[in-house]
Amino acid sequence: MGKFGFFRNGDDVPDKNRSMKKPKIGIALGSGVARGWAHLGVLKRLGELGYEPDIVAGTSMGALIGGCYAAGTLRQLEVFALGLTRRRVFGLLDLTLSGSGLIAGTKLTNLLNKHLGHLKIENLEKEFVGIATELATGHEIWLRQGPLVEAMQASYALPGILKPVNVGGIWLMDGALVNPIPVSVCRAMGARLVIAVNLNTDAFGAGTVIQNSGINGEGDAEAVDETDSSFAASLKQRFFGRNNNPDPGISDVMMAAFNVSQDRLARSRLAGDPPDVMITPRAGHIGIFDFDKAEESIKIGHDAVDKALPYLEEAVEALKRHT
């Protein structure tokens, strides 16, 4: 274990509950940016069916949702998500030309600290691990102690979009670079049954542009921020693209490249360490910055659990027979 409470992949991970006889369910929440709202629907439906996970491992947006779940604040997060409009989404995107990311992330950090800043991972209601990538070495880092918000930030620090996060003197960035769907983490933490949630099953080739962005008076008027300077508006236009412009925006190029590498990595890792049950919300049509489509995404996650339910029931019964 590192001095600051994180673990590199391959470290011997202590588990205070390893001796418990009750079989443990782990859930690996994958990355997916705005598609991550589907995790809300997945976790809610699993709870309704009586399959609440004991261990939550999350990467990127999965770490944000998983951390809130482990902290018992999932309902508050759902209310926030359902209240997002295109205008509010833009209001949280504090674009900058300084630093190592196009978005400063200060507004989002302040919002998280307001509600979760007092929480430490080791004191949460459920076991939680956030996955991040060490900038200097590319090592996979498991954040399972220390401030919850800091772990979330590190796990979703998308390269080029959000700046890396310094945790204990080590710079960390998005965990999707090394482990997009952290099944291996759930197993290492002692889970007998591992459920994985893959948000990118049907996302290959899906658009990443925010359509009808409302910039410079076009599209959805609700999205227009009249306090924007012409330069800021131009930067948003270049970053998110325009639905009447065939040229890709900056986010198109960056995210297309990121999605390709993430898709290949996820397939490889899942082939080597497959989950017991895979839940695949069909959210590929939702753009990565469509955070205002939470209601649709949540329903997609809910429905995906029902489709996977026969496999989940079968896995649980098999586990009971061998326990």
Write the layout of secondary structure elements.
Layout: E1 6-8, E2 25-29, H1 38-48, E3 55-59, H2 61-70, H3 74-82, H4 86-92, E4 101-103, H5 106-116, E5 127-134, E6 140-143, H6 148-155, E7 160-162, E8 165-167, E9 170-174, H7 183-188, E10 193-197, H8 230-240, H9 250-272, E11 277-279, H10 294-321
Helix pairs in contact: 1-10, 2-6
Distance between the termini: 31 Å
Please tell me how large the radius of gyration is. 19 Å
Q: Which consecutive residue ranges, at least 5 long each, have pLDDT under 50?
A: 16-21, 205-227
Largest pleated sheet = 9 strands, mixed
Mean pLDDT: 82
SSE order in H/E notation?
A: EEHEHHHEHEEHEEEHEHHEH
Number of strand segments: 11
- Overall helicity: 25-40%
By DSSP (H or I, 4+ residues per run), the number of helices equals 10
Determine the strand fraction and express it as a percent band.
Answer: 5-15%
Structural class: alpha/beta
Morphology call: globular
Protein architecture, described:
- Helices cover 38% and strands 15% of the residues.
- The protein is built from 10 helices and 11 strands.
- The protein has helices at residues 38-48, 61-70, 74-82, 86-92, 106-116, 148-155, 183-188, 230-240, 250-272, 294-321; strands at 6-8, 25-29, 55-59, 101-103, 127-134, 140-143, 160-162, 165-167, 170-174, 193-197, 277-279.
- The strands form 2 sheets. Strands 1, 2, 3, 5, 6, 8, 9, 10 and 11 form a 9-stranded mixed sheet that branches. The chain has a two-stranded parallel sheet with strand order 4-7.
- The longest helix is centred in the last third of the chain and has 28 residues, at 294-321.
- The protein is globular, with a radius of gyration of 19 Å.
- It starts with 5 loop residues before the first strand and ends with a helix.
- The model is unreliable at 16-21 and 205-227 (pLDDT under 50).
